[in-house]
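Title: Comparing notes on inverse folding

I've been comparing how different people in this forum approach sequence design from structure. To keep things fair, I'm posting one structure and asking everyone to reply with a full sequence. Here's the target:
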């Protein structure tokens, strides 16, 4: 009878049940902690990508707004002059002379800006022919407070200058990482979309002209034409939009 009333087996079974419950609770807690850690890491990475694209957009904007193109064309016309040839006095007018000086953009984005402007012909007016280009902006590795190396992703900038107006649109995005392209496509696509930005600037061309007459030394007139092209109203918006709908504020 004592053997029949023994509860040793029930105790072992109860212990196994409690152990199983504890294991399940531990697994749930571990899964939640891992998920939270992954989410925090992804949020930190997304924030870093956003700041990286934002910094690149601000650097491009500040460089373009601080730069300019300037061209000065000087046309000199001469008075009727006399010259003696073989005892005969001959009157003639020297042909006009044309001198040109160009001040090309010199800041970080100089190649972009210069490629969209045609001012090489001194006898023709300066025109904005427009241009398109794509570059990649990479940041060097740095060390954080824990002396660990931190690497940054590459920013892709698509540049377009409109013909005639000189309005500029720059679309910036994070360059996709090859190793992540096949594993977490949706997450990467959302992150890249969140980090996309569009920079727009308004082109401005100003032409000035001055002239002086009867300046002496046989000069009849000096006419100076100056052409200045600048960019202003730099605007950065989140997302990539078409240039037609995202022109700079006028």
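Reply #1:
Here's my take.
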């Amino acid at each position: 009878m004592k053997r029949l009333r023994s509860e040793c087996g029930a105790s072992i079974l109860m212990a196994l049940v409690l152990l199983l419950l504890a294991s399940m609770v531990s697994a749930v807690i571990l899964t939640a902690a891992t998920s939270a850690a992954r989410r925090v890491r992804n949020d930190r990475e997304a924030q870093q990508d956003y700041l990286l694209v934002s910094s690149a957009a601000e650097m491009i904007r500040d460089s373009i707004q601080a730069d300019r193109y300037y061209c000065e064309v000087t046309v000199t016309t001469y008075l009727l002059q006399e010259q003696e040839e073989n005892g005969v006095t001959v009157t003639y007018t020297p042909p006009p002379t044309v001198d040109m000086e160009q001040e090309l953009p010199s800041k970080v984005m100089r190649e972009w800006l210069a490629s969209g402007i045609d001012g090489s012909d001194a006898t023709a007016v300066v025109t904005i022919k427009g241009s398109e280009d794509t570059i990649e902006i990479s940041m060097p590795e740095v060390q954080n407070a824990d002396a660990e190396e931190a690497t940054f992703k590459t920013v892709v900038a698509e540049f377009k200058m409109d013909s005639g107006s000189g309005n500029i649109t720059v679309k910036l995005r994070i360059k996709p990482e090859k190793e992540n392209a096949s594993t977490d496509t949706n997450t990467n696509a959302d992150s890249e979309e969140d980090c996309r930005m569009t920079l727009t600037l308004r082109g401005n061309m100003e032409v000035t002209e001055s002239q002086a007459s009867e300046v002496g030394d046989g000069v009849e007139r000096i006419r100076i034409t100056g052409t200045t092209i600048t960019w202003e109203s730099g605007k950065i918006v989140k997302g990539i939009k078409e240039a037609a709908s995202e022109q700079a504020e006028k």
